[in-house]
Design a protein that fits this description.
460 residues; Aldehyde Dehydrogenase, Chain A, domain 1; Aldehyde Dehydrogenase, Chain A, domain 2; 2 domains; 6-stranded mixed β-sheet; globular; binds nicotinamide-adenine-dinucleotide
């Protein structure tokens, strides 16, 4: 449905949840199977939508969206029983005899808000966790990827009752505050920009609604002088120019050691040409910018340094070629904002301290990449930088392994998901202790005078 949501539609979800239907293992498993079947059935429609919104090839669509989603569903189907199993907890001395367990309790009615850059998987991978956790869900896909939003709406309404899982389309700035003003969600899972994340956090705080915030930021790639240059160039180029740079974990900029800077830049340019040919506009593997507003913003960056490769653009088709830029003007916007497009600044450093000072201008990046063959440098970089997640000698791919928690830290977000971490995010660990009634010693109760020595013996 598009636009406004009536309160009774949200109350329907609350009632559905309260009825307990979503709790049993068999129900959750069945819904995951339905979702999987729907994704497989609509794979071609999904590919068409992702091509319309972002010019993704079927290969890229599978590797970065549909395939990741299917892998997440398959993992949940395999592990759900284990995840749901109550954990037995041993009693402490004071509470002997008693038994304890931790139950993974569903949260209730949760809201999932997704951005436009990976519009399918960033809406539906969280949904897998929410279903596995036994919740009812409202999904708000991004209006900036309307074709994908429409196919999500179609798929979900075909397989799920709107009292269980409902898709709400439309302008987030209007739709989301309107829903939140009339209905208290039990959790909000938001992926998108920092400013909107802050606005959602504020709305949620009024009602003490817990949030997961999957945000962005400037993720650096450090290339030390002992790095394998061809491999580093390939992995950085793939991470940066996939989806025309519109990836939250893309290397935002490269900090390369000055001794190898020229060689690295040449290798990088050759790599880009090998990937996309001389005219990336003709490459089936190269995407487009989401809309004219973002295109214009990216265009502004070209004036902020020396373009050493690319910089070719066509506003009509939203084509923005893979671009490498150096000698950035001091104070330029390109080094202040998350670029989120195919413009890659190359900066040089001579000492680690110098490089660290640049990284620290944007604390807590969502991702961090270091390319080096030196174990000490690797350890120092990884330990001394606070970041959400990252790679050594690679970029972006940690996102795809759902055995890792995926999320930011500090400025780049709150909470994490994927695989069992999604299940944890969408459930509450409810601690329950059960104490038999046949043993109830007087020492536990007032008057306490004279019992201190016993307390000290039992509580320590
Ligand atoms: P966005 O914040 O503009 O939009 C995201 C969602 O929020 C959309 O569904 C939109 O409808 C909704 N929205 C927009 N304005 C709103 C408002 N005022 N109130 C409530 N909801 C509102 O983000 P975007 O431009 O779609 O995404 C780009 C950003 O997302 C980048 O910063 C990127 O790094 C980040 N991102 C992060 C991840 C991650 O996993 N951490 C993944 C993808 C993108």
């Amino acid at each position: 449905m598009n636009g406004t949501v009536a309160i009774h539609e949200l109350t329907e979800l609350r009632n559905y949840f309260a009825g307990g239907t979503t709790r049993p293992y068999a129900f959750r498993k069945q819904q995951l199977l339905l979702l999987k079947d729907a994704v497989l059935k609509h794979e071609q429609d999904i590919n068409n939508a992702l091509y319309t919104d972002l010019k993704k090839s079927p290969e890229e669509a599978y590797a970065t969206e549909t395939g990741l989603l299917l892998a997440e569903i398959n993992l949940a189907l395999k592990q759900l029983h284990r995840w749901m199993k109550p954990k037995r907890i041993l009693p402490d001395l004071v509470n002997l005899p008693s038994s304890g367990k931790i139950l993974a309790d569903p949260l209730g009615v949760v809201l999932i808000i997704a951005p436009w850059n990976y519009p399918l998987q960033l809406s539906l991978i969280p949904l897998v966790g929410a279903i596995a956790g036994g919740n009812c869900v409202v999904i708000k896909p991004s209006e900036l990827a309307p074709a994908t939003s429409a196919i999500i709406q179609k798929m979900i309404s075909e397989i799920f009752s709107p009292a269980y899982i409902k898709v709400v389309e439309g302008d987030g700035a209007a739709v989301i505050p309107a829903m939140m003003q009339q209905f208290r969600f039990d959790h909000i899972f938001y992926t998108g920009s920092i400013p909107v994340g802050k606005a959602i956090y504020q709305l949620a705080a009024k009602e003490l609604i817990p949030v997961t915030l999957e945000l962005g930021g400037k993720s650096p790639a450090i290339v030390e002088k002992d790095a394998d240059l061809p491999v580093s160039a390939r992995r950085i180029a793939l991470g940066k120019f996939a989806n025309a740079g519109q990836t939250c974990v893309a290397p935002d900029y490269v900090l390369v050691h000055e001794d190898i800077a020229e060689q690295f830049t040449t290798t990088l340019i050759n790599t880009i040409q090998n990937f996309f040919g001389n005219d990336a506009g003709k490459s089936a593997d190269y995407g487009k910018i989401i809309n004219p507003k973002r295109f214009d913003q990216l265009l502004g960056y070209l004036k902020e340094g020396e373009v050493v490769y690319g910089g070719i653009t066509d506003r009509a088709s939203l084509y923005f070629s893979p671009t490498v830029i150096k000698n950035i003007t001091p104070g330029a916007a390109i080094m202040k904002e998350e670029i989120f497009g195919p413009v890659l600044p190359i900066l040089h450093f001579s000492t680690r301290e110098e490089a660290l000072a640049v990284v620290n201008q944007h604390p807590n990046p969502l991702a961090f990449y270091v390319f080096t063959s030196n174990a000490v440098k690797e350890k120092t970089w990884i330990e001394q930088t606070a970041f959400g997640g990252g790679c050594v000698n690679n970029a972006v791919w940690h996102f795809a392994n759902h055995r890792f928690p995926f999320g930011g830290v500090g400025n780049s977000g709150i909470g994490a998901y994927h695989g069992k971490y999604s299940f944890k995010t969408f459930t509450h660990e409810k601690a329950v202790m059960k104490t038999p009634v046949w043993f109830d010693p007087a020492i536990k109760y007032p008057p306490f005078k004279g019992k201190l020595k016993w307390f000290k013996r039992f509580i320590h």
